[in-house]
# Entry
Amino acid sequence: MALTYRDAGVDIDAGEKLVERIKPLAEKTLRKEVLKGIGGFGALFEVPKRYHQPVLVSGADGVGTKLKLAFELDRHDSIGQDLVAMCVNDVIVQGAEPLFFLDYFSCGCLDVEIAADVVAGIAHGCELAGCALIGGETAEMPGMYASGEYDLAGFAVGVVEKNQVIDGRQIAPGDKLIGLASSGAHSNGYSLIRKIIEQQGIDLPTMLLPAGESLAELAMLPTRIYARSLQRLSEKIEVKGIAHITGGGLSENLPRMLPTGVAAMVDASSWPRPALFSWLQKAGRISDEEMYRVFNCGIGMALVVDSSDEQLALAELDNSGEICFPIGNIIKCHGGEAQVCIG
# Structure
């Protein structure tokens, strides 16, 4: 008997249906610089003409084991925003304007409805970031994934003027540290979150935290995208450094923006800790040190500005819809000292 690709577990017709479903989603995100729409072998994008010495900034990421919670809860509409955010938030810390995004969706058996929900979330994330969903790849690979599961990867490209790259070299003692509130755990630390849920024997869909919040809702909140707020702020003041508080938490991400000779003194009492993190620490008996090494603990992005610009920065960020806090200072330090002190 003659075999077909469908006999091997790959449904070409389903793939074509998905492409047709996602075309209008992608079209909503397009920018004038896109020279060719979705569906070709490669996507074409023209660097905006207003840039004189454009430097391209790129980033790639996934959403980690937060996907496991999406499978358990059968919730796929926001995980795409997580994917965009994890890539775009890495790109904007250099001062870049996000230009375009590509996604990679792989599964064992393509469910068009689930995949369309995921891509809808990706498109929404691109709209929030102001970048074009310019293309991507859907791979159906029988035998590679458990039934109902899939994996995601994303790729973002931005652009910044060469003389406006934010690289932290101007950070000096006396500068101020500003924290932008996260929407939750974003997409980091979920292996530990899942371990706590497993050890506690929790039924995730029904679990309520002490204040009555749904654990599932808090755990699945999509990662916040800070692109537009930071672009507006950079037009008003000099932002000396930006750190995306992603995997590694506050302890390991703040040093990534700091030059040698300075350290960040962080006042952990300067912002309210979201209920999710308080519950995680108590339920998992996690030390303060480990919390700050794993989770963002309520701060999704941290900025360094001159002390004279602190109040203006806080006001501008507030006007952009961010919840922000003055969370610390930059001090002088010597070789061998920790570059972050959280107390």
